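Hallway conversation turned thread

IA: we were arguing at lunch whether anyone had actually written out LysR family transcriptional regulator end to end. Turns out nobody had. So, for the record, here is the sequence (291 residues) and right after it the structure tokens. Reply here if something looks off.
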Amino acid sequence: MDLSSLEIFRAVALEHSVTRAAQRLQRAQSNVTTRIRQLEDELGTPLFLRDGKRMTLTDRGQAFLDYSERLLALADEARQAMHPQQPGGRLRLGSMESTAASRLPGPLSRFHGQCPEVELEVSTGTSQALLEGVLARRLDCALVAWPEDKGPWQEEVASLGLEALPVFEEELLLVLPAGHPPVDGPADVRVNGLAGFAEGCTYRQIAENWLSADGRPQPKVQQVGSYHAILACVAAGSSVGILPRSVLELQREPSRLRQLPLMQVPTLLVWRQGYATASFEAFREVLRNAG
């Protein structure tokens, strides 16, 4: 087992295809097939289920992918550590959907202009999933939300073996259908649905907690995959939603929905304690100046 084999395995796992993995790696298809078979023989277990040309990970293959991601990340980190003044290699950034849409385009453009040699990979998810990704070394750093009612972030972040830097401050809005009567508190909300992202989304949890205050029943959550879908559900009159003002301001037309400011929530850049490559240091500095 060597890093080259792990890179080939990872490419096939991500592409679900030997052909596409070979094209991605600029290798002969026969070479990729041989290396995968050699790796499976060495490990003594099949890593893929083969359905025609489609390659799907087995349970053991999924577990091995997690180890492969960590080993490849550690190797890349070690290479970068040998050149502490020269940004390069790969930087894997996780971000909430809202932050990626409303906050990152400018900083990412500036970072690419300053560090064109860095291969930046950006993925999105809920704050909980992003934190887990950083801890499992699937991500190098992530932008997550930290609500005030969760307590001071410094202590809990440190207890997880992470470091953090506040980079943005978001004003969260509860949005309601346009014809909804004025709202001063949870008791005034007449819609029992909440359109939101999957569990693990900090903003969704804030909305659930706020709406169920004073013993009110938990709202019925309609899980969606985008802020456009949240706004559509609210406009249809079936739900309320929660989103940062910065996302609402991205809409082409002014929103006709009723809005209620709820709270200010910081967005933190988090990373593992001790992680300090030149690429990450440069990216952190760009974000520090963008807040």
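OS: looked through it. Strands lie at 48-51, 54-57, 90-95, 119-124, 141-145, 162-176, 193-196, 220-223, 240-244, 258-272.
IA: good, adding that to the notes. The CA atoms of residues 153 and 159 lie 10 Å apart.
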